[in-house]
Each structure stands twice: as C-alpha cells, then as structure tokens.
Amino acid sequence: MGEVPKFGGEVSRRQFLYGSAALAGSSVLGLSGCGKTAKSPAVGLAPALPFYDAYQPLVPIRVHTDRIFRITVCLRPFRAQGPRMEAEKIGDKTVVYNYGHGGSGWSLSWGCADVVTKMAMEAAQGAREIAVIGAGALGLTAATILQRAGAKVTVYAKERAPYTRSSRATGSWTPSSRIALSSAMGPDFATKWESMARTSFAYYQSFLGTPGAPIEWTDRYSLWDEERKPGERRASSVPQIHDFAHLDDRIADLVPKQEVMPPGSTPFPTKYVARTSSMSFNVAGYSRQLTSDILLAGGTFVDREFHSPQDFASLPEKVIVVCTGYGSRALFNDDSIVPVRGQIAWLIPQEGAQYGLNYNGLNMLARRDGIVMQYSKGGEDEGWNDTNEAPDRAYAEQGINVLAELYSRMQAKMKP
Ligand SMILES: Cc1cc2nc3c(=O)[nH]c(=O)nc-3n(C[C@H](O)[C@H](O)[C@H](O)COP(=O)(O)OP(=O)(O)OC[C@H]3O[C@@H](n4cnc5c(N)ncnc54)[C@H](O)[C@@H]3O)c2cc1C
Asked: Could you tell me the Gene Ontology terms of the biological process aspect for this record (predicted)?
C-alpha cells in the first residue's frame, strides 16, 4: 500500500511542499459541516509551539463532489425548556419520558440514561421486565444502563440503526448544542445538565481502545480571518433570533483548552488557527456495538410502531421508558418539540484522516465511517421549524466548495 499523503507534523518547507504536491494532484472541490462554534481564546498570546506539541499529520480531504456517497437530513428534537425527563402514570403503566435532546442526543445520552434508569427502577418496585421504546441514541443507552441495573429489557422501535435519525448525526461531543433556550430553561436546568454531561463523558471514556474504535479523541482545527475578541463566537452572517443556551463553560475542565497556534506552525492559510481535541463518535460501528451488547446481555428487539399512548396498554411490561426522539411530537401530540433541520454530505472515508475542521460555516469531521461535511450559512437558527427531510444536493455542494476555496488559498500560499 502506498504512503498516505499528509501535511507533516513539523512544518518544514519540504513537508509544506509535500502537502502542496498532494493537493495539486486533486482538483479541489469542497464539502461542509456543522457543529459547535468553538470559543476563541485571546489571539496572539500563545507561546511558540514546542516540538512535542506539533500538529498531527493531516491527510488532505479529497474534495470532489463525486466522492459524496450519501446526503442525509436529520431533525433535531428541540425543546425550549430542555429534554423531557419525567415519569407519568398512563392507566396501569408508568411511562418514563426521555426525549427532546436537540443537537446533543448522542453526547448527553449516558447521563440521561442514568437519570431515567433510576426513575424506571423505582417505579418497577422489584419487577425486572422493562420496555424501552426507541432504538436511537437515547433508547440504546437507556436499555444498556437498565440492563446493568438488573432489568430484563425489550426494545420496541419502528426503526433501528442505520435507519434512525441518530444515525445521521455529526458524531461529535456537543453536549450543549441546541439543548434549550436560555430564556425558557428552568433555574436548575444548567446544574442537571452539567451532571448528565459529566456522567456521559465518563461513560464514553470506557469505549476508548475497544475493537473498531467506536469512540476516539481527534484534533479539531478552527480557522478564521476576522478579528474576534477572546471568548467570542463566530458571528453568523444571518441575524440570530433564538437564544440557545451555551453551557460548555461549566465543563471546560473535561477537554483540552483551545489554543491559538503560532503563525506559521500549521499549513492553513487563515490569519488565525486554533486547535483543541474532542471526542468523535463513529456512529455506524458504535450503534452496532451497543445493539450487540444489549442482545448479549439478554435483551430483545421488537419491530413495532405505536400510534398513540393508548397502544402502550398492550405491552406486557408495566414500566415503559420512552425514547422516541422527534417521533414523540406525533406520538404524544407534543408541540413543545420543534424540529431543527440539519443536513450532512458524506464523503468516502480516507485512510489516516481522523480530524475535524471548522471554517466559514463548514464543519468537517473525518470519521472512520465517512467524512462528514456539514454546512450551515444560517448559524444555530438554521433549520428551525423545518420538517423537510429531503436532501438538498446544491447546498451540499456549496459546502464542499467552502473547503475547496480553503484548499486553493493553501495551494497559493505553498507556491515557491
Ligand atoms: C445534522 C445533525 C447533526 C447532529 N450531530 C450531533 C452530534 O455531533 N452530537 C450529538 O450529540 N448529537 C448530534 N445531533 C443530535 C442527535 O442526532 C439527536 O439528539 C439524537 O439523534 C436524538 O436521538 P433519539 O434517540 O432521541 O431519537 P432518534 O434517533 O430519532 O430515535 C428515535 C427512536 O424511536 C423510534 N420511534 C419514534 N417514534 C416511534 C413510534 N411512534 N413508534 C415506535 N417507535 C418510534 C424510532 O424508530 C427510533 O428508533 C445531531 C443532529 C442533527 C440533525
């Protein structure tokens, strides 16, 4: 197998040219991505980069539109007050709700599973049989934690991976992405959120190094040219209406600080480059592992659609944990759920490409199961109350062109 072209770890002129040659071989077209806009620390305060902190070799992404192997659309199940996590009696059943996690469902899932498992086990009063409805991020993790607490779990769901909406996520650690509105969340929400985020984070570390690398830490680069004050988020070109809560400062100790890279220490052409590391979820393999683990622990999956809560009466289990995501809006006639549409174009994975990049509204995350290109010109408000799940090819290609534009700037900079 030939050597994978990379931008080298230490930016010597030779390595720079090596990267340039790799780029020159591909007629660049771009892709996009979404995700949290990282806070930028004070610009220009970073010390020179020590040798042991040189950036990892970066495989250039082959930004050709014919390398898109699918375009997916997902609706974030957003609730202004935050996810619904409470127990309610419906007839002789106890229903424990666990839905409405916006853009944070994967990230917060283990913490939420912990909370609803306590509610469900208390309601079960010693009975072991517990139903979970839904096999997305929240259903799979709730089933796992219920099993660890001693329950015999049956998961009922209309769809399983890869057909759930959760299978169409970016796959990043984004625990406060579109999780609530600051103006609508209750006074104790931030404290509860922090506890769930910390629990989730700890669970995720237990998947590191397991076969198939379902979870891994990867470097993330933020690139920008405009002046920004320390801690300022990237301004959207479109005015933002909704005051989404940003709670990440409460758990800033969990991930490495974002550092502004000294000028010339990376191959990127922008005025500012910042780097941090974060968790990537290789959702295809990760969902498969969660499903297998549930089966191995004696769980059962049943294909079933519920049309109203009255259908729950036919279930043998007395305690039902409901993890139906955006489907909850129709199932419970719950208008508190607002869809926030998001689209991803998937590029063919490339050997050695495991990093993320954020530039001009494009969020690229190179995962093992696909290179995620999420583009959002409209900032966090984009897709608000939009139920259209049809892919928009032209928009996907616009995102790709953002990366192509970055690469052509790089190529110009690398010319002798
Ligand atoms: C573009 C995009 C990128 C994202 N990126 C990230 C990210 O990087 N990190 C992150 O943490 N989050 C991310 N999210 C958010 C995340 O995808 C969601 O929060 C999460 O998928 C919600 O999971 P869920 O299990 O609640 O819902 P779903 O995945 O929708 O699962 C619901 C389950 O319930 C079943 N169901 C629904 N209704 C019924 C019914 N009536 N009867 C029977 N079964 C039913 C479904 O079949 C399915 O099995 C992203 C979202 C979008 C749109």
From this structure: D-amino acid catabolic process
